[in-house]
Each structure stands twice: as C-alpha cells, then as structure tokens.
Amino acid sequence: MNALTFRLLEVFKQIVESGSITAASVALQLSQPTVSLQLKKLTEICGVTLLETHQGTVRLTDAGNAVYQCANDIMRSKLNLSTHIESLKAQHHGGFKLAVVTTAKYLIPPILKPFCIENPDINVQLKVGNTEQISQRLQDNKDDLYIFSEVPTMQNIIATAFMENHLTVIAPQEYSGPNHCHLKDLQHQKFLVREPGSATHQVLVKYCQQHQIKLSNIMLIESNEAIHLAVASGLGIAVLSQHTLNQSAMGGIKELNVVDFPIINQLYTVTLKNRQQSVSSDKFKYHLGNHGRLTSVY
Length: 298
Hints:
The protein is α/β, with parallel strands linked by helices.
C-alpha cells in the first residue's frame, strides 16, 4: 500500500460517482486511457478487483466499497487540513471570512464599522446571501463565522443567539384594508414575499401552516429592498424584519397591528466545531456581544 496516492483515490472516487470511466475522464479532464491506467494501478496495489462493469456502468465490489469509503474519509481529512491551514494563515495575517443572511446585512455594517476602526489590521471578507445560500457555504466549510436568523439543521455546529429579530407586517401608507386583526383576515390581500430559500419565507410559511392560513395572492421577490419599495408603491403588503425597515430612509409604508406580530426570533452566530477559529473572528464575535446578549444554543 506504500504506492497508494491521493491522485489514485481521487480518480477512483470520481469513477464511482460518475458511473463510468468515460464520464469520469470528462469530469477530471483526463483522457480515458489515463483514467483506465490509474484504475489499473490502484487495483494492482490492492491486489483485488474493485469494480465490475454491468451494462456500461461500474459497480463496486465489497473491496471496492471499502476503498471508496476510505477515499471519502481521506479526501474529507485532506479538505479539513487545507481549511485548518488556511484558517491559521488568516489568523497570522489578521483576517477572517464572515457570511451573513440578507436580514443581517442591514445590521452588520454599522457593527463592523467601529470594529474595523479599532482593528485596522484585521481584514474582513463579507459574503451575503439568502438562508439557503449561506447554509450551503456552511456545509462547504467556506467561512469562519456565519450569521443566521434560523439555526441550521446540522450536528457539528455551535450556534449562539446574540440579538432579537422582529418580523412585522407592513402595508402601503394609503392602505385601508383590515387592521387590528389576525393574519387570516389578510389572507386575500396581495402578499409580497421572499423566495423559498430565505428564512423570512420559511417563518411565514410555518406560521400560516400552524394557523391554517392560505395566502391566495402571492408575488415572490428576491430582495428585501425590492419588497420594501414595492409595498411603498402600493403593490401589496409584506412581512419584513424590523432591521430591514430601520436601515431604510424610505417612507410610504406603515406597520399593521396584527395578532402574534411581530414574530420574534433570534439572530445567531454559527461556527463549525471542527474548524479552527482565528483570533480575529473570535474577537469579532466578542464585539457582537457588546451589541446584544450572547446566549449559547448548542
């Protein structure tokens, strides 16, 4: 087994996941003979058949399955090592990567400003996306620190609540429909809502399901700013975070008095347990604690 290499395992893993040598060669941008040769070398090293061909596709033997699982473990460890090294480099150079959901993008810049003034040598890379996009970055271990408005459903994370997030119902200034009412009384109004990948959308859907509310007229808009503008223009009503409204000087809207609203949830800092945290990201997390109350969730 001394001749076993990362490259041989990488090629084998790709063959299994692609389903054929031809597809693997395309994915790896290698010629078919080269991929076949790599498979032959690995088979000779192991001394046992790893793959069987059936109707043009490959199937794992028991030995092949063991090698495939080993390849996954090794590649995962290699990625973790690479991430750890990059984290140590970031620590040395005084920087960290921060990824936040769109609701938090209105809150974070005013908090970042004094932090960056106090720590001019710390380089912050900021990424903004909806909950689905930032969750994917978390799964891919791309950043040091994440901010969510809902705790992700992952096991290997540390989530810490640091600030309340109020979701409120807003309408155009000239709105004359139901007010001082239940959301069910508004279900026939035109609702402007975020895309399914956003936490605000998920909270609204969950609330409607719990209270047997069916919104009959929905327009999806993939931006809080666009929803805010559309409501002010009289296009419909919406549920938005108070943080979004607080950071906008735009007028033309009013908050409706709706039972159970504002819905109050939390904003959370989230880190991966197996990712080495840099001194700078820990320092910013402590800084966030001065703007809210940090409460560990798990």
